[in-house]
Write a structure and sequence with these properties.
Distance between the termini: 5 Å
Helix content: 40-55%
CATH architecture of the largest domain: 2-Layer Sandwich
Radius of gyration: 22 Å
Number of helices: 11
Number of strands: 13
Oligomer: single chain
CATH topology of the largest domain: Ribosomal Protein S5, domain 2
Number of domains: 2
Shape: globular
Structural class: alpha+beta
Largest sheet: 9 strands, mixed
Order of helices and strands: EEEEEHHHEHHHEEEHHHHEEHEE
Strand content: 15-25%
């Protein structure tokens, strides 16, 4: 819920990170992928001030800026290039690449970007880009404000830090615009219609950072839960209703990954062995779809306790299968294989998440799993130099925090 402090609006929003559970790499070739939100979040607090400044604090990347409010208002009023002439301004009509270049040029007139790191520059670009889009036709509604952004998510680790950031900025600025026009201060959360609009803007921000993203990351960070994606299906994204909450251990291999190189590696393998790789991709598609059906069933059986443990065992079997299929595509890594073996020795099943070649693996925790075995597993992983953290899958998406 937003509040008034004195005469100033103050709001706080947060959005989760994400994990890819099934379907890494196969999703590139039109197969199904399954991902979930995690209980690590990015938060954004906006509070109006009386100092005629817009201050931006992003603690995770050590960015602290104080901008002249009049300069920002003037920037927001400037032209937004469209793909076609239309009297009704819409985010779907903007010439994204041209507008991105223009926004960076305009920022450089009000901020010395030469002193910023690439990460700071791109984060600032996303913020100003979205501010411009959201307030382009409503610049008179803007007031000086302070923005503070914090995050529990590791940067560049495949856990959705950039999507979570884009969702938070979009949600906060859209909510702020609503408050400046309708004063809905008793609003405690976003509606499904709000989700759709937030997702459109967040995807535009993701395009700045990643070129041509699938849209899966921002969709999860907006909706939470588990999201099934199939680019060639009748519905590209399907959010699982009434999801189960699943505990897992997220394990950092400590090995840097290069997503584009790994995608190219699979493409080259497919080019040399098209039929064999297609069979692997089809098997991964079946694993993802089966996992999605199981999660829906587990969500229902958690409440009734019917077949819950049996369904969970099947989910673990699918984890082992998917890891084996990814290994056959050549995207695992010695350290990821080591993690899987250590977990298996204590009765747990693990797989890589994301592009592979390093990065993270995860193992789900079955219901009533022996705490002694878990402790032994965690100690062994730690002794091998792997960092572990407990996360919960399937929680809330973007929300208004009180």
């Amino acid at each position: 819920m937003a509040c008034i402090e004195g005469n100033s609006i103050k709001i706080k929003v947060s959005a989760p990170g994400k994990l890819i559970l099934f379907g890494e790499h196969s999703v590139v070739y039109g197969r199904t992928a399954l991902a979930a939100s995690i209980n690590r979040r990015t938060s954004l607090e906006l509070c109006e001030n009386v100092e005629n400044r817009i201050t931006i604090t992003m603690n995770k990347i050590d960015l602290n800026l104080s901008l002249n409010f009049s300069d920002i208002v003037q920037l927001v009023k400037e032209n937004v290039p469209l793909m076609e002439n239309n009297s009704d301004f819409s985010i779907k009509l903007i010439d994204h690449d041209s507008f991105t270049r223009l926004t960076l040029e305009r920022i450089s007139r009000v901020v010395d970007v030469s002193n910023l790191t690439d990460q700071q520059k791109s984060s600032l670009l996303v913020f100003v880009f979205l501010l411009h889009l959201i307030f382009h036709n409503n610049s008179d509604l803007l007031q000086p404000f302070n923005i503070v952004i914090n995050s529990d998510l590791s940067l560049g680790a495949g856990t959705g830090s950039s999507a979570s950031y884009c969702v938070c900025v979009s949600a906060a600025l859209l909510h702020y615009r609503t408050l400046r026009t309708s004063c809905e201060f008793d609003k405690t959360n976003f509606t499904h219609e709000d989700y759709k609009i937030i997702n459109e803007y967040a995807y535009a921000g993701e395009r700045i950072l990643h070129g041509k993203p699938s849209g899966l990351d921002n969709t999860i960070c907006v909706n939470g839960s588990f999201v099934e994606m199939n680019r060639i299906g009748p519905k590209e994204f399907n959010v699982i209703e009434n999801p189960p909450l699943i505990n897992l251990i997220l394990i950092n291999s400590g090995v840097p990954r290069n997503t584009s190189q790994l995608v190219q590696k699979v493409a080259a393998l497919k080019n040399r062995n098209p039929s064999a790789v297609d069979n692997i991709l089809n098997a991964m598609d079946d694993v993802s779809k089966t996992a999605s059906d199981l999660l829906k069933k587990i969500g229902a059986s958690q409440k009734s306790c019917t077949s819950f443990e049996e369904d969970f065992q099947r989910l673990e079997e699918l984890i082992v299968m998917n890891q084996g299929l990814l290994y056959s595509l050549g995207v695992s890594h010695r350290c990821l294989d080591d993690i899987c073996m250590i977990c298996n020795q204590q009765g747990l099943n693990a797989k890589l998440t994301g592009a592979g070649g390093g990065g993270f693996a995860f193992t789900v925790l079955p219901p009533n799993f022996d705490q002694g075995k878990l402790n032994t597993c965690l100690e062994s992983l730690k002794s091998h130099g792997y960092h572990c953290s407990h996360v919960v899958l399937g929680g809330d998406g973007v929300c208004i925090d009180s």
